[in-house]
Amino acid sequence: MGKLGFHYDKNRCIGCKTCQIACKDRHSLVAGEFLRRAEITALESSADHVCYSVACRNCDNPECVGSCPTGAMYLRPDGTTGNDKGKCIGCRTCVWSCPYGAPSVSVKSGQTRKCDFCFELRGSGKQPICVQACVTGCLTFGEMEELEAERSNAVVIKQPLEAERSAIGSKKQPLEIKEVSYKKDTAETFLVLGGGVAGLCAAIAIRERNKTAGIIIAGAEPYLPYSRPMLTKAPLQSFDPIAYSLHTEEWYSRNGIKMLVSKRAAAIDAEAKTVTFDDGDVISYDKCVYALGAESIVPDIQGLDKTAAITVRSYQDISRVRRAIIGAEEAVVIGGGVIGLEIAWELKKSGLSVSIIESGDTLMPNQLDAESAAYLETLLKSSGIDVFKGKQGDGSSACPPACLNRPLVCFAAGIKPNTDLAKASGLKTVSGVIVNKHMETSVQGLYACGDCAEFENASIGSWQKCQEQGYIAGANAAGEALEYVDMDAPTILHIAGVSVYSIGDMGKRKGGEYVIKTWRGSTAVEHVFDGEAKDFPVNERSFGQESYEARSYLGDKLVGLTYIGDLTNASPFEKI
Fold it and tell me: Which segments within 250-291 are labelled E, that is strand?
């Protein structure tokens, strides 16, 4: 057998991080640290296709094995190195001797650890968990020589993938400053209100087009902009806003972006073009980008004391949850969307008995069709999480009253845009700050983007859309005339050892004749909504019993996709 490793195709990758999430979930690592380090190395390469062995290169005569004084590091028959935790004394000799820095030291245990390509899974004929979770097929596993030989063939998929992305996918704005054709250097001051990804992308777009202007980002939290989705995707006990910062202090300094933390805007004077902050500081601007995000909704629920409830929206919220689980045995999560399911699973892993309360009829009501949601609910219940859906005739929750009296109650029941400051400043608002296709508000010189913005009667609540809107807002504030086009952003979830990928319209919009087709194993089932079923060609495939696929058709057009389970052979861009 040749050396084993992974092949990473950057053209297929949509940056969903599902591989890392699956890795950390199975191995209790910090965001799949082995895979993350290797991914960074791969992304820094100029090649479109990169072969690597995660954090280990599988040396012919591994120094980590030869230097280990206790025999904790050993060589397996398949050429991979193993790590016997029972023998490890944390001396770090393997770390120092490895030419690739593959082993790492656990902060918690002090012992060394390294990726073994999910040896136990491979022993039962399965792929490593990161490959199973990959939703686009950008990550494959096998012998390195075979993977290298396939590189030229893999390039062929680049154009079809881009075509599918434009039809039913999402654009992804990079969080790095790149060269653009539009240039307009000025001495203006651009003030960005909000330290989330929308505000950061606005600042990036401005700097790309204007190398001399002053750029200020004012964020209310005491941290640099960090990856908010990782609040519930990272292990509950290990999330750190510094570790998940989108950029370092040095990056902001190097790019001439002044980052102000713990800086909460109190008033905007649009006529004078000034912003007053709660500490009394006043900052003048030439253009301002309003990117103040949203806050969690805390609905009234009969029988529930909201004073003890914890929302899940910021690092401070996660810190409160950590403190609350000390000594707790039971928890209830209000909301069966992505965030609610993720925090429920983290609480379950922390040893608590967990119940989910969803006021709607299905889990993930904004993303999944009824049968997909029912399938996911079955998997959750089999993992020990109780699920209560809908309401009783009197409007009360369907869950038992005792469930609402649990010591830990987490709210993940949706968000509402932060518009108070905008309203007081004269900006037009409805549910959010009204913007046009250029991300312009009703006041000249003021732009809005992200969760606080309302475009074409809808607010977004999507990380990918926040990036795109922020980038458009920043580019136009700098003088360009780009237009925002709403897009379908994928929803990705990994809990209880199960991966979920959903994109597009799964029969949720009114006025259409939808046909939903589903597969379990190799069995196809057709569901008809508001019309007659049509004969759609379906390619035969053989999924494992743990896999599930649903496709949504509007007329003869594929408009939505859902995959649940082992996604190794379920690349959506290949099967459309």
Answer: 257-260, 265-269, 274-277, 282-284, 287-290
CA distance 470 to 201: 5
Pairwise CA distance, residues 427 & 267, whole Å: 12
Tell me how far apart the alpha carbons of residues 14 and 16 are, in angstroms, rounded to a whole number. Answer: 6
For 517, 527, 557, 575, the CA distances from 537, given in Å and listed in that order, are 11, 15, 12, 12
User: Comparing 332 with 21, which gets the higher pLDDT?
Assistant: 332
Give residue for tokens 């004394």. Answer: 89
Residue 165's pLDDT is what? 28
Tens-digit pLDDT profile for residues 377-413: 998 999 999 999 987 655 566 677 767 778 889 999 9
Beta pairing partners, 309: 409
Q: How far apart are CA 302 and CA 307, in angstroms?
A: 13
Tokens encoding 84: 């016997």
**Contact of 491 with 515, CB cutoff 8 Å:** no
Determine whether 41 is exposed, middle or buried from the number of CB atoms within 10 Å of its CB (0-12, 13-18, 19+): middle
Token digits for 319? 């810190």
pLDDT of residue 530: 37
Distance from CA of residue 182 to its chain's centroid?
31
What's the half-sphere exposure (Cβ side, CA atoms, 13 Å) at 69? 5
The DSSP bridge pattern shows strands 330-334 and 353-358 to be: parallel
- What is the rounded end-to-end Cα distance, in angstroms, of the chain? 35
pLDDT for position 403? 73
Region 205-234: mean pLDDT is 93
Q: What is the pLDDT of residue 161?
A: 27
SS3 (DSSP) at 367: coil
Instruction: Give me the amino acid identity at 519.
Output: W
Which string of DSSP letters, residue by residue, matches 408-428?
Answer: EEEE-S-EEE--HHHHHTT--
Residues above pLDDT 70, as percent of the chain: 71
C-alpha distances in angstroms, 47 versus 54, 123, 365? 17, 32, 40
Share of the chain residues as helix, strand and coil, in percent rounded to the nearest 5: 25, 25, 50
Domains, the chain, with CATH or none: 4-168 (3.30.70.20), 189-294+416-477 (3.50.50.60), 306-413 (3.50.50.60), 491-575 (no CATH)
Question: Using an 8 Å Cβ cutoff, are 123 and 111 in contact?
Answer: no
CA max distance for the chain: 73
| Segment 505-536, tens digit of pLDDT | 888 766 667 788 777 654 444 433 333 333 33
Q: Is pTM beyond 0.70 here?
A: yes
Q: CA torsion, points 472, 365, 561, 564, in degrees to nearest 10?
A: 120
How far is C-alpha 574 from the chain's CA centre?
Answer: 22
Distances in whole angstroms, Cα of residue 173 to Cα of each of 14, 202, 255: 10, 11, 18
Strands, DSSP E only, in 199-264?
A: 214-218, 257-260
